Amino acid sequence: MLNNFPLWPDQASTMASRVDALYIFLLLVTGAMALLVFACVAFFAARFRHRPGVRAEQIEGSNALEITWSAIPFLIFMAIFGWGAFVFFQERTPPADAAEVYVVAKQWMWKVEHAEGQREINELHVPVGRDVKLIMTSQDVIHSFYIPAFRIKQDVLPGRYTVEWFRATKPGVYHLFCAEYCGTQHSGMVGSIVVQQPADYEAWMNGASTGPLSASGEKIFAELGCSTCHRSDTQGRGPNLQGVFGKPVQLDDGRTVTADENYLRESILDPGSKRVKGFQPIMPTFQGLVSEEQVNDLVAYIKAISLSKPINGAKTSANRAVSGDSSDTEGQTPPLPSGSKVQ
Ligand code: CUA
Prior knowledge:
Blueprint: H1 14-47, H2 63-92, E1 99-106, E2 109-114, E3 119-121, E4 123-127, E5 131-138, E6 143-147, E7 152-156, E8 162-167, E9 172-178, E10 190-196, H3 198-206, H4 213-223, H5 226-229, E11 248-250, E12 256-258, H6 261-269, H7 292-306, H8 313-316
Parallel strand pairs: 1-5, 4-10
Antiparallel strand pairs: 1-2, 2-3, 5-8, 6-7, 6-9, 9-10, 11-12
Residues 108, 143, 178, 180-182, 186, 189 line the site of dinuclear copper ion.
């Protein structure tokens, strides 16, 4: 319906119909209330209009009436709140087994890295019917990753990771917008979400020119000398990182934190802020020494050794050129046509 006059974007994710249902409910409730108010205004204006010789009488309040018109809206608002919270928590909670894609925003482009190794710019290829979790950060200012057809939007902040997830339900090409004013070319910070059938997606993914992020991360981990302190036995000067991801970590100051993506990231860039109990503050900061992409690679590597999944780079890095250093993509920003792969 309304094909030539689209008031609604496509419904192309599992969240889309849930968000729309709530939105339509809000429209109906507010529309009905507006009609009711206008009807009352018209009715009372006619019913109690000035007539010659008739004096207006003062009508005192009615408790029953006031309780009714307070209680009914209260219940409606609570229903909206409960429904909204339910949808919100669904949208905020990525499924545990979602495929992971790292997104780095910068003025004015989106750099996308699939955990399996494909890299793209201003494009994101995903298969139909698979949960995809985006782990996003910004190199400069606040951006916002917005896919109207999926009904998801999430701010992308410098200095930390934010996350959003979706499951695409319909093949096609959908708009990606930056939804946070981020400078002169904010309105040009757009891209495409390409939703493919699983077979097409596999074919596209197999064209990857780079190995998995965790393999790049392993290389960087060795190059930066991380592996000399973070050894896989207990003899290292830094904590053993095997199995650390997703687990609670006891800190020197008595706190306990969960080793999630943001914790790993912070520990690379600001190692002193959350020091693991029993270790000396000897780790240097890597702020400014590693690019956002390299931090992503390191995080992907630490996750891979934590989940004790074999790094499938062992298989693929032999026949694929693993580009561990992705910082060479810096500086060639605007000239890259949309959809170019970062080598
Ligand atoms: Cu990036 Cu607006």
